[in-house]
Amino acid sequence: MQREFAPVVYILASQKQGRLYTGVTSNLLRRIYEHREGLVEGHSKKYSIKRLMWFELHDDMDAAILREKRIKNWKRPWRIELIEKDNPDWQDLAIGLGFDPLPPQITRKD
After folding, report:
1. Phi and psi of 37, rounded to 5°?
2. Whole-structure pTM over 0.70, yes or no?
3. Which residue in 21, 26, 62, 80 has its CB near the most CB atoms, within 10 A?
4. pLDDT tens across 55-110, in order?
5. Please, what is the Cα angle at 79 between 109 and 49, to 5 degrees?
6. Rounded Cα distance, 21 and 55, in Å
7. What is the C-alpha to C-alpha distance for residues 7 and 72, in angstroms, rounded to an integer?
8. Radius of gyration of the chain from Cα atoms?
9. What gap in Å lies between CA 33 and CA 109, rounded to an integer?
10. CA 32, 35, 41: angle at the middle one, nearest 5?
11. 106 vs 48: CA distance, rounded Å
């Protein structure tokens, strides 16, 4: 990633083929930290969705927000296909951005 502050759409997962979360931010590194530390209330915190599976840089926030909204409306198989196109093994891309590996996910019973 070339710029620390740039509009980014991202997808997190709890584990391979696990629960997904799609978001948008202007600071991906800060946002990953917030998710990993449980500082983001809601779906991602409730289901421990912390692993960065996919992200896409944008030139402006309006374009990023539009892309996020479109992806959120996609069917789950389409989001999985988007992830697996560039990340077929579901590796946590945050590690390549300087974050430590997370421990294996414990499957949660709802």
Report:
1. -90, 0
2. yes
3. 21
4. 999 999 999 999 999 999 999 999 999 999 999 999 999 999 999 999 986 665 55
5. 35
6. 12
7. 17
8. 13
9. 25
10. 145
11. 9
From the list 26, 73, 27, 28, the residue with the least C-alpha distance to 54 is 28
Q: Do 105 and 48 meet the contact criterion of CB atoms below 8 Å apart?
A: yes
Residue type, 11: I
Which burial class, exposed, middle or buried, applies to 6 when counting CB atoms under 10 A from its CB (0-12, 13-18, 19+)? middle
String of DSSP letters for 49-99: --EEEEEEE-SSHHHHHHHHHHHHTS-HHHHHHHHHHH-TT---GGGGGTP
Distance CA 99, CA 36 (A): 10
Which tokens is 3 given? Answer: 């710029």
Is pLDDT above 70 for 3?
no
